Amino acid sequence: MSNTNILYQHGTLALLVPGLLDGTITMKELLRHGDTGIGTGEGLDGELVILDGTPYQVDSNGSVNIVKDDFTLPFANIHFGSYQPLTSVDGISQKELEEKILSLTSTNTFFSIELHGQFTNVKTRAVKKSHKPYDTLAKTAESQSIFEKDTVTGTLLSYYSPEIFDGAAVGGFHHHFLSDNHDFGGHLLSLGTASGDVKLQQFDTLEQHLPVKNQSYMDFDFSGEDILGDIHKSE
Length: 235
Prior knowledge:
Blueprint: E1 6-10, H1 13-16, E2 25-26, H2 27-30, E3 36-40, E4 47-51, E5 54-58, E6 64-66, E7 72-73, E8 75-79, E9 84-92, H3 94-103, E10 111-127, H4 137-141, E11 144-161, E12 172-179, E13 185-190, E14 193-202, E15 205-209, H5 215-219, H6 227-234
Parallel strand pairs: 1-15
Antiparallel strand pairs: 1-8, 2-7, 3-4, 3-8, 4-5, 5-6, 9-14, 10-11, 10-13, 10-14, 11-12, 12-13
Catalytic activity: (2S)-2-acetolactate + H(+) = (R)-acetoin + CO2
GO biological process, one term: acetoin biosynthetic process
Keywords: Acetoin biosynthesis, Decarboxylase, Lyase
């Protein structure tokens, strides 16, 4: 039986900062650890939203593709979905949404939010795949594509990480979005309003998986990097 209390994370956001963008886990392997999640492909190849075991990639052209088993990722969060109803919202802002969620849960553990409903003024991004030698995260992110929808029905899939884990993940919320029509999505930059049912899944265990077979990662010296500063600029 799948353990729904575990959040599995492959890689860290910190390793993306200096440009350690090799794909170090396949989608086939990742899906052994869950059916719901987010991530990015090798070389920051688009933004991933995994729903009900199907891995959707929003690429830099805005197309939504279902990726194959051999697609590789440097970073991903995944878990076995078992969401419980938390609250309903009607036309509230992103800031109000996040504040409401936090008022109903704890900031001291990892959790995931799934909000299916109607959204306005949604802005997302996806980055064009880069190739070796990789640039830094900040430099690579400069080639991001921005997508916008005035109104859209879809799913907001989010992870919350406690501030103490900032660097391994993003301290706070990390949002991805996918439209019901599978024609729009990506890493959420902002939204105007959200309406729908908010569901919560809390985790008591973080399973952190590191790419120890990747020599570039194993040999890298992180001591000279502004890890947190660069993560927050890029996110």
